[in-house]
Amino acid sequence: MKQQEVFRALADPTRRAILKRLQGGAMSAGELGAAFDITPASLSHHFAVLKQADLVRTERRGQYIVYSLNSTVVEDLARMVLDLFPSGGARGGKR
Amino acid sequence: MKQQEVFRALADPTRRAILKRLQGGAMSAGELGAAFDITPASLSHHFAVLKQADLVRTERRGQYIVYSLNSTVVEDLARMVLDLFPSGGARGGKR
DNA sequence: GCAATATTTAGAAATTTGTCTAAATATCTA
DNA sequence: TAGATATTTAGACAAATTTCTAAATATTGC
């Protein structure tokens, strides 16, 4: 897993909002972008960053390109975060 | 908790390395910086970002300023991350 | 108080990032 | 095939970020 790509991807609020929005289920780029006040081109850029970090998956469905969350990453992601703190190894403290 | 500050802080590899290094215990700025090939001024900048995100604490000890991990944030941090994914509420899937 | 050490602040330069417009590519439908 | 819709790519530009050097601040010990 590309740690740097992932953290970088999460650093932008628009991208986090995109991930949030995808919790509701897969969505086309246009549908997804309707919630944001930036151009499709800018959106596309954000999608690319998320994809590079392997946080989302894409599938062309006819005219549309459908985005979905890559949920398998969540575990790695959680590990990466916890790994930044002590006692994060085996069932961290405080649990 | 300032979500944006935290994610932004974690986006830089040097800052993540600093956090990692602090896992070994509290350390003065100089000691901490010895591991990196950047000037004290640049280091200081990174410290400021980490502090703003409330990820580290500082305490002056004589001439030195000692940095330590703010471990209490780990739970919030984990929550923020998991919150970006579905089924993140109660003991997510795949566990 | 003064010199030495530790760290931060200020200001500038280089790089990266987010956004835009314009153009390109892909698919659908008439 | 042509036109309409959906999305991405290319190139430019402004804003943010990382880094540097030089100077400022804080503390220790003589």
UniProtKB/TrEMBL annotation, chains A, B:
Keyword list, A-Z: DNA-binding, Transcription, Transcription regulation
Which InterPro entries does the record match to this protein? ArsR-like_HTH (IPR011991), HTH_ArsR_DNA-bd_dom (IPR001845), HTH_MetalResp_TranReg (IPR051081), SdpR-like_repress (IPR047796), WH-like_DNA-bd_sf (IPR036388), WH_DNA-bd_sf (IPR036390)
Gene Ontology terms, MF aspect: DNA binding; DNA-binding transcription factor activity
Q: Does the keyword Endoplasmic reticulum apply?
A: no
User: Pfam families in the record, alphabetically?
Assistant: HTH_20 (PF12840)
The UniProt entry's coiled-coil ranges are none
Domain HTH arsR-type positions = 1-89
Keyword DNA-binding present in the record's keywords: the answer is: yes
Extract the Gene3D superfamilies matched here.
Winged helix-like DNA-binding domain superfamily/Winged helix DNA-binding domain
* Name by which UniProt lists this protein: ArsR family transcriptional regulator
